[in-house]
Amino acid sequence: MNQMKIGEFLKELRNEKGLTQEQLAEYFNVSNRSVSRWENGYNMPDLSMLVELSHFYNVDMSEIINGERKSKMMNDERTQLISDYAENEKEVLLKRMRIINIIGTCAMAIAFVMMLIKDNRTLPVFDYMMGLFYGIAFGALLTSFFYTTCILVNFRKYKSKKRYMNMIVGICIVICVLFLIASILASI
Questions:
Q1: Higher confidence at residue 87 or residue 8?
Q2: What is the rounded distance in angstroms from the CA atom of residue 12 to the CA atom of residue 98?
Q3: Higher per-residue confidence, 112 vs 164
Q4: C-alpha closest to that of 133 among 107, 158, 96, 114
Q5: CA angle, 138 as apex, 133 and 141 as ends, to 5°?
Q6: Residues 6 or more apart from 127 whose CB is under 8 A from it?
């Protein structure tokens, strides 16, 4: 899979539609930088975006993955290309999940150790630090949940809708405030 070739092909398809990178980015609710990185071969769109691009450009996904148009392709070859692409995306997701889980586990272990060694003479900063580590662990747990349930993949579709965005930001703020209040109450 040649990312430069794929990028050139994506650029060619965009130019055939007479679109700028900004227009394409706005249509798919991604940043201009993402489109630029795809077309320069620095990054690849994820599998769900690849499906959307193939429908938008009215080309086969295997043509995008090959970086060129082909009048006839073998079904086996097409299936293999798509499966390889999906496997690469799965590996990237698993790496991210491992990192997030390691960070969460370490944060939980540190918070637990801090809870065990805590006594009445500790400073309030100690409690805040313990709350911070519990918060990091909880954040890692939530992120893992979002990754495994594919909520983050589908989030891009709702990004343009201000109501959903404001609701999610509001929920995050409420959770942060509750953790802050809990850590303050724990230090009293």
A1: 8
A2: 37
A3: 112
A4: 107
A5: 130
A6: 118, 183, 186, 187
Q: 16: closest CA among 69, 83, 78?
A: 69
CB atoms near residue 158 (< 10 Å): 15
The identity of residue 18, as a single letter, is G
92 vs 120: CA distance, rounded Å = 45
For tokens 């798919």, name the residue: 28
pLDDT tier, 162 (very low <50, low <70, confident <90, very high otherwise): low
Calculate the alpha carbon distances from 93 to 56, 84, 184 in Å.
Answer: 25, 14, 36
What is the reported pTM?
Answer: 0.48
Q: Within a 10 A sphere around the Cβ of 25, how many other Cβ atoms?
A: 17
In angstroms, the Cα distances linking 4 to 7, 53, 116, 118, 150 are 5, 17, 54, 56, 28
**Other C-beta atoms lying within 10 Å of the C-beta of residue 153:** 15
pLDDT per position as a tens digit, 118-152:
777 667 777 778 888 888 888 888 877 777 776 66
Q: Are 127 and 121 in contact (CB under 8 A)?
A: no
Decide if 4 contacts 41 (C-beta within 8 A). Answer: yes
Q: Which two tokens stand for residue 93?
A: 């997701």
